[in-house]
Amino acid sequence: MAIFFALRYSVFMSYKIFIDGKEGTTGLKILERFENRSDIEILPIAEDKRKDESERQKLINASDFTILCLPDDASRVSASLCTNPSTRILDASTAHRTNPDWAYGFPELDQSFRSKIETSSRVAVPGCYASGFAAIGYPLVKHGVIGADYPVVIHAVSGYSGAGKKAIALYEGENRPAALDSPRQYALTQAHKHLPEMKQICGLDYEPIFNPYVCDYFSGMTVTVSLTGRLLKKKMSAKNVWEVFAEHYDPANYKGRSMVNVVPFMGEGCLDEPFIAANTMSGRCSMEVIVYGNDDRIVVTTRFDNLGKGASGAAVQCLNIMMGIDETTGLTL
Predict the structure, then answer these.
(1) Are 287 and 126 in contact (CB under 8 A)?
(2) Lesser CB count within 10 Å: N end or C end of the chain?
(3) Cβ atoms 290, 303 nearer than 8 A
(4) Does the pLDDT at position 138 exceed 60?
(5) Which residue has the higher pLDDT, 77 or 36?
């Protein structure tokens, strides 16, 4: 009888969730993904109290889970306000992604990542570009395709929603600058804030060269890494490299359901179409890995939604894992 009531309670119980920074793009999308979920109770904060530290501290410590959707410095402050040992925190900022005391919230990378998310009270949700690169770089290093000292170069394009509310307003405003009609390369000083986690999570000796572009469409992104065959640790064809990714992301190798899908290899390293559009995963929370090129110059691209697997979708996936439920709950695959 006691077991019956315990099981019944676990099925119908709800968790108290506080979102610190719910007015930002990521926070709003997380709230949207919580719609129609009866297992979650959102702890509200009055509009005039959003920056009141004592009020936020009260809500953080009253919650089962707090999700931080704040700038880095503000996230560090909010995390420090937590004194309740039962409160578990997910941080969507960059602040804690290289902190070994925090789990890195990309469960498909390895079973050890998933296990740490399941048990940790502190989870750092990866950044959008970092997620796209880690999905490529981690398997390449782990399986000995490239050495830790490989000269990695990353090219990436993203919709403008990844730049935040001010950029969205600029892109969607009247009489906007003509420059916004064109893809715009940025992070020109090679000091992008995602670089430290790209290096650390993938086990690289050096930070990669990173060339991101923001483009005139709302959401969706691609992250691309090119490999020179003669510089690989062992001789591999494009199909051999594809086989590494197909094996690594085989859902049978991990507990739970993988949300990283390796696109079938089309033969001779060719896709069934001559283009890779960056916006076709918009609105979805899964990710594609595509291998193409030829045996001398092998190219790997990840395609996903910067607001999905690259931000709010990843946060909700991690929350679901921490709650011990189906990780896809509330997500569109």
Answers:
(1) no
(2) N
(3) yes
(4) yes
(5) 77
What pLDDT band is residue 269 in, cutting at 50, 70 and 90? low
pLDDT of residue 279: 97
- The answer to whether the CB of 305 falls within 8 A of the CB of 285 is yes
What span, in angstroms and rounded, lies between the C-alpha atoms of 198 and 18? 29
Q: Which residue has the tokens 């926070």?
A: 27
> Model confidence over 211-223: pLDDT tens digits?
999 999 999 999 9
The whole-number pLDDT of residue 165 equals 86
Strand 122-124 relative to strand 88-91, pairing: parallel
Strands 184-185 and 103-104: unpaired
Concatenating the DSSP letter of every residue in 195-262 gives HHHHHHHHT-SSPPEEEEEEESSSS-EEEEEEEEGGGSSS---HHHHHHHHHHHT-GGGSSS---EEE
Residues designated as active site? 128
Encode 126-138: b = buried (16+ Cβ within 10 Å), e = exposed. bbbbbbbbbbbbb
Mean pLDDT of 111-140: 97
The answer, as to whether pTM is greater than 0.85, is yes
Cβ–Cβ < 8 Å for 134, 289: no
Q: Is the separation of the CB atoms in 171 and 160 below 8 Å?
A: yes
CB 118 within 8 A of CB 291: no
DSSP state of 287: E
309-319 residue pLDDT tens: 999 999 999 99
327 vs 318: CA distance, rounded Å:
7
191 and 134 in contact (C-beta within 8 Å)?
Answer: no
Are 150 and 122 in contact by the 8 Å Cβ rule? The answer is: no
What mean pLDDT is reported for the chain?
93
